[in-house]
């Protein structure tokens, strides 16, 4: 999704995307996307919305996009709080009191509606400038079950991995491998030891962790954000 050639945006201008199939947005509670603007934008200069028509009337879940730095891909996650029924259109709009006088190109990539996710904390000697957009995946026996992309600096950041399909967890343990290209992620090898550390907070009943999931066995109306009664962290650190 993109705005094509740089243009001057007037109040009320919008980018509208139609999903290939109608989407029941009541099944989702989050939306995430990557966005790039050639012009710096303040929080609220741009809004994300859902709608059941290809227009700007009766908008659903009209939400502020946070501030964006010029010339930088930014990962954004927003809550879906008011979506009802089937809304096959999603978009981004400039409110009536906002316009960008300078010519600006806007690009949006990897827009996803979802519920479940796992945030992986990443730290170490990462690629110069920060390896933004480097892909991480969850795999079971070599089969990809979910994907996310790094956002952060050359020393620390996060990856939000969103499952592509439901991952069933029963009485038998199911190992999930985290797979990433260290060639893209890590700094060039030197005589010193480069380190990569990954961690995931399990959370507890009183403190949210990095897991966000729904119990398919009950009619849950809110996500579960922990997997252990006592807060612990799953982590690994390796050097080369």
**Helix-strand string:** EEEEEEEEEEEEEEHEEE
Share of residues in helices: under 10%
Strand content: 35-45%
| Average pLDDT for all residues | 84
Strand runs, count: 17
Main sheet properties: 8 strands, antiparallel
Total individual domains: 2
Radius of gyration: 20 Å
Structural class: mainly beta
Helices, by number, come to 1
What ranges have pLDDT less than 50 throughout 5 or more consecutive residues? Answer: none
End-to-end Cα distance, whole Å, is 39 Å
- Tell me, briefly, the overall form: globular
Molecular structure report:
The protein is mainly beta and 240 residues long. It has 2 domains: 7-114, Galactose-binding domain-like (Jelly Rolls, Sandwich); 117-239, no CATH class. Helices cover 2% and strands 43% of the residues. It contains 1 helix and 17 strands. Strands 10, 11, 12, 13, 14, 15, 16 and 17 form an 8-stranded antiparallel sheet that branches. A hairpin with a 3-residue loop joins strand 12 (143-152) and strand 13. The protein is globular. 22% of the residues are buried.
List keywords for this structure.
240 residues; mainly beta; Jelly Rolls; 2 domains; eight-stranded antiparallel beta sheet; four-stranded antiparallel beta sheet; 1 helix; 2% helix; 43% strand
Topology:
Blueprint: E1 7-9, E2 14-18, E3 30-37, E4 47-51, E5 60-64, E6 74-79, E7 89-93, E8 100-104, E9 106-114, E10 117-124, E11 135-140, E12 143-152, E13 156-163, E14 177-180, H1 182-185, E15 195-201, E16 211-212, E17 233-239
Antiparallel strand pairs: 1-8, 2-7, 3-6, 3-9, 4-5, 4-7, 10-13, 10-15, 10-16, 11-12, 11-14, 12-13, 15-17
């Amino acid at each position: 999704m993109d705005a094509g050639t740089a243009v001057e945006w007037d109040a009320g201008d919008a980018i509208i995307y139609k999903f290939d199939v109608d989407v029941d947005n009541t099944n989702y509670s989050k939306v995430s996307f990557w966005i790039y603007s050639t012009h710096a934008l303040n929080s609220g200069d741009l809004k994300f919305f859902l709608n059941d028509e290809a227009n700007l009337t009766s908008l659903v879940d009209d939400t502020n996009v946070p501030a964006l730095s010029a010339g930088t891909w930014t990962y954004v996650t927003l809550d879906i709080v008011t979506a009802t029924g089937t809304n096959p259109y999603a978009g981004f709009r400039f409110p009536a009191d906002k316009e960008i006088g300078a010519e600006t190109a806007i690009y949006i990539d990897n827009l996803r509606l979802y519920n479940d996710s796992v945030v992986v904390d990443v730290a170490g000697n990462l690629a110069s400038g920060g390896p933004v957009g480097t892909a991480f995946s969850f795999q079971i026996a070599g089969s990809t079950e979910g994907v996310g992309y790094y956002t952060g600096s050359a020393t620390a950041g996060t990856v939000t991995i969103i499952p592509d399909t439901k991952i069933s967890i029963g009485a038998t343990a199911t190992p999930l491998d985290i797979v990433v290209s260290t060639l893209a992620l890590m700094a060039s090898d030197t005589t010193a030891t480069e380190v990569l550390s990954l961690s995931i907070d399990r959370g507890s009943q009183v403190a949210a962790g990095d897991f966000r999931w729904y119990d398919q066995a009950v009619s849950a109306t809110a996500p579960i954000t922990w997997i252990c009664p006592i807060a612990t962290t799953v982590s690994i650190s390796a050097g080369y």
